[in-house]
Design brief:
The protein has 112 residues and is α+β, with helices and mostly antiparallel strands. The protein has a single domain, classed as 2-Layer Sandwich (Alpha-Beta Plaits). The protein is 27% helix and 34% strand. The chain has 3 helices and 4 strands; from the N terminus they run βαββαβα. The chain has a 4-stranded antiparallel β-sheet with strand order 2-3-1-4, with helices on one face. A hairpin with a 2-residue loop joins strand 2 and strand 3. It starts with 21 loop residues before the first strand and ends with a helix.
């Protein structure tokens, strides 16, 4: 059997934001602790042929805290994926921010 070589580009072209720089997007999601919610969230990246750099999941009682770090997205695409995830019925909250900006938790701490 012959080995098949594939050459995938490091970043996917964003048709809506062709001239946008790519960023590292951070997603912080709180969702109901249902068996399929992690798969449904990650499926939005899989449909775009994207693999997250890091995924963390912690269960606290009836909620899941899901953290996702994704490289190679335009900020526009990161926001579109975030809105799709936010629309899942099991998702309670979603924050998305660029690595270049301050994380939402840090913003709340400074405001207090």
């Amino acid at each position: 059997m012959h080995a098949v070589e594939t050459n995938h580009p490091a970043t996917r072209v964003d048709a809506w934001a062709v001239n946008s720089d790519h960023c590292q997007a951070h997603y912080q999601i709180v969702a109901e602790a249902e068996p399929d919610v992690v798969c449904r969230v990650l499926n939005y990246f899989a449909l775009q042929f994207l693999t997250p750099q890091q995924v963390t999941v912690n269960r606290e009682e009836d909620l899941l805290n899901i953290g996702i770090v994704m490289d190679g997205l335009s900020w526009h695409r990161a926001q579109v994926i975030g809105e799709k995830i936010r629309n899942l019925i099991s998702v309670c909250t979603l924050d998305v921010w660029s690595a270049d900006s301050v994380a939402p938790q840090a913003v709340m701490t400074v405001a207090q």
